Amino acid sequence: MDALLSKFVFYVGGDICVKLGLELEKLGDKEITDQELAEKLGEDINTTRKNLYKLLDYNLVTYRRTRDKKNGWIIFYFKANFEGYEGILVERNQKQIENWKTLLEYEKSNMWYSCDAGCTRVTFDKATEMDFRCPQCESLLNFRDNNQRINDLLGKIQMAEKENDEIRVLRKKVVKKKPKSKSSKATEKAIADNSID
Ligand SMILES: [Zn+2]
Question: Residue 123 phi/psi, 5° resolution?
């Protein structure tokens, strides 16, 4: 798994999913049962399954089920499905970016009030309805500057957009692999020609 894929898999299910991903990657196109994976990882079968389902949710693995002829039990065979994961990642980032932008607009277009304890945080309209009293601790609701929240959201949006840009560059490189080898041959030839001179 490359750095980006590891990061994605970690996001999906933390360290254990990364371990699963690495095991599945080693097998390439070969299948493995959840039981065998659990043994390899030294995890119990339920934890292993739970995390395989997390990967399945993001289409990062595929599975096949068959019935054991001897005892009639259902066996699940899993394998890695990492190809095209960049597309899933871009889509997820895009959804988050949209959510954060909506939140950002809401933060920007309202004045915010809260009590000192922080149990209530509301817009000006809501604060008026509450007579500027926190319903929980009953202390006064004061105007709060929300620059920090705005900056946090802007930071998150920027990071996700940067990541998507990087993924798009990465994808272009994958697509361009073939013509690139041609041009590198041309470069080699040019170098060779030059060295003769
Ligand atoms: Zn309060």
Answer: -75, 170
* Nearby residues of 145 by Cβ (< 8 Å), 6 or more positions away: none
Of 83, 114, 146, the residue that ends a domain is 83
How far does the centroid of ligand 1 lie from the alpha carbon of residue 135, in Å? 7
- pTM value? 0.65
Ligand 1 centroid, distance to 130 Cα (angstroms):
12
**Each residue's pLDDT expressed in tens, for the chain with a length of 197 residues:** 988 899 899 999 999 999 999 999 999 999 999 999 999 999 999 999 999 999 999 999 999 999 999 999 999 999 999 988 888 889 989 999 999 999 999 999 999 999 999 999 999 999 999 999 999 999 999 999 999 999 999 999 999 999 999 888 877 776 555 444 444 455 455 545 554 44
Q: Which domain holds residue 151?
A: 87-174
